[in-house]
Amino acid sequence: MVQNPTITHTQLKAFHAVAKTGGFTAAAKFLGLTQPAVTQQIKSLETQYGAELFKRVGKSVTLTSTGSLLLNLSDRYFNIAEEAHHLLTSIMQMKSGRLRIACDIAARAFPTTASFRNKYPDIKLSFSIEDQTTLETSLQDFLVDIAISGSPSSHDDLVSFPIAEEPLTFSVNKSHPLANYNEVISSEIGSNDIILVSDNPLEESIQKTILQHLKLTENTAQYYPNTDMVIEAAANNLGGTFLSRREIMHDKRLKSVRINDSDIKRREYLIMHRSKENTPLIEAFYQSLVSKD
Fold it and tell me: What's the Cα-to-Cα distance from 218 to each of 159, 208, 225, rounded to whole Å?
């Protein structure tokens, strides 16, 4: 037995492969080595420590009790190595990476990302405008890295974080009679034409809650297929809408009037795949959105 033995990465890698694949031949194929080379690594490891790691029965092998204990350690070792790889890769991306962002409306893209762009000018940002269903599919298929939307996702493999919140408002053209006020009560909205989004199930649910809260009927509403059309309809004085200030702030034709007797909040969400939740680049983006600095 060698004095003060030291296990090598090559030995541990060979052991881990045999334990996971269940055989020397399968491990050799997995590692891209010859079967004798793998056998030699296991033999030298067992000899070096005077420990039997595998029970050999014909061409199959099973772990001994010592082998099972070592497998627990090798699992942790290689998991940490993989995490280190992802960490260093992500840090490298912070210097010259790319972030693909989907938004449900164009108005969210540039104002929302301004802080991140100023702090990380070397990160290339690309944008796409997609409806909620397409946006979520793009996240699930890893076609985009993150999404910014006025509605959270209900998919199990996607996570949504609120990044902005504001009181409910009624947005109208600046020539509209209600534009003369900074605040109104819900009863003052009832006699006005209301414009809503029709092709977004999550937004429809929010709108239904608003209408019920304000004791308004859906029969009085005009529906348009997406938020951009709703904004344009309101800007052309066809009625008012319950979009947030952030959603209409780019359009100087509109004014948002707060609904004083409503406790409903409009929110904006950052959505991502669960597997990307803790990556440094996306974490940095999230912090740029919620930072108070």
Answer: 31, 8, 16
